[in-house]
Amino acid sequence: MWGNGAGWFPHLLSGGSTEIVEIHNQRNPIFPEMLRPEPIPPNIDVGLNSVMEHEADVLIITDGDADRLGLGDEKGRFIDQLRVFGLLAYYLLEVRGDRGPIVKTLSTTDMLNKLGRIYNVPVIETGVGFKYVAPAMLENHAMIGGEESGGYAFRNHVPERDGILAGLYILDMMVRLDLKPSELVEKLFDKVGPHYYDRIDTRFSGDIQERKQRIIAANPQEIGGFKVTGLNTTDGFKFQLGENGWLLIRFSGTEPIIRVYTETVSEDRVKSILEDGLRIAGIN
Predict the structure, then answer these.
(1) Which end of the chain is more exposed for a tag (fewer CB within 10 A), N or C?
(2) Alpha-carbon distance 269 to 94, whole Å?
(3) Where among 173, 192, 211 does a domain terminate?
(4) Helix-then-strand count for the chain, H and E
(5) Beta bridge partners of 61
(6) CA 224: distance to chain centroid?
(7) What is d(CA 226, CA 42) in angstroms, rounded to the nearest whole number?
(8) Residue 177 contacts residue 139 (beta carbons within 8 Å)
(9) Are 178 and 159 in contact (CB under 8 A)?
């Protein structure tokens, strides 16, 4: 993404059978073709199209300062950050045989909780941001920590996000299991079941406290057709939907934006859960 990730993968991996084609590998602080250098669609569409053009096996995406990872599969499809977090944890637990706590923000995947139960490792949930993740990793000597934005950190490394190391781990997983990215996702789903994620960011006006009170007063008993089983207010409003997933409503700390997120095991419920979340937040 025109930033600090340029040159590192050729430097680390060239000279063998791996062929690397770099895209946007010139330093350019204007970050052409994107509003901001986040490793998510539509900023990465050029890369996804290039996968098909070059018949590549995988697209590894680093953001402007290379601390976040985006991933595209061999079919030119984006793999969302929650699935990448699940893949990285599965890689450490199953492929490398590591054990240790997993630290996750409350806005990321329940697949980690399921992996924690399967492999008998604790899962620690924090507020959103590495200002919460990093201290929790150090305190618990965690194996991996991460967040919904695509930032992941690893034990025996710095307790901070590293998109290059995360990308190398994904490549190592592909080699060791002899699977392409879409096949890795299917293997993960074989272990924990399918999970589907989406998020809507919406600008708003008015008083934040009034909106927060409105969300509390809504007291929904059902969201997207699923029964509400709990509410976590550690960082925003996270409505638990039992084994069916969750809905999170958060306010940006830097701009007048409401973020509505969901992860669910039912692909056909994603839209209705988000619509209910917008309604609860007073957007619809």
Answers:
(1) C
(2) 30
(3) 192
(4) 9, 14
(5) 70
(6) 22
(7) 31
(8) no
(9) no
The average pLDDT across 15-30 equals 94
Place of tokens 């609860």: 280
Q: Round to whole Å and give the CA distance between 150 and 157.
A: 17
Same domain, 114 and 181: yes
The model carries a pTM of 0.95
Cα 204 to Cα 259: distance, rounded to the nearest angstrom: 10
Q: How many residues does the chain have?
A: 284
Total domains, the chain = 3
Residue 214 lies in a domain: yes
Q: Tens digits of per-residue pLDDT, 143-177? A: 999 999 999 999 999 999 999 999 999 999 999 99
Same domain, 204 and 109: no
Q: How far apart are CA 278 and CA 55, in angstroms?
A: 40
**155 burial type by CB count under 10 A (0-12 exposed, 13-18 middle, 19+ buried):** middle
State whether 257 and 275 are in the same domain. Answer: yes
Confidence of residue 127 (pLDDT cuts 50, 70, 90): very high
Check if the beta carbon of residue 263 is closer than 8 Å to that of residue 245.
yes
The strand pair at 226-227 and 230-232 is best described as unpaired
CB-based contact 214:220 (threshold 8 Å): no
The 10s digit of each residue's pLDDT in 195-251 is 999 999 999 888 899 999 999 999 999 999 999 999 999 999 999 999 999 999 999
- Note down the domain range covering 163: 81-192
Q: Does residue 3 form part of some domain?
A: no
pLDDT band at 254 (very low <50, low <70, confident <90, very high): confident
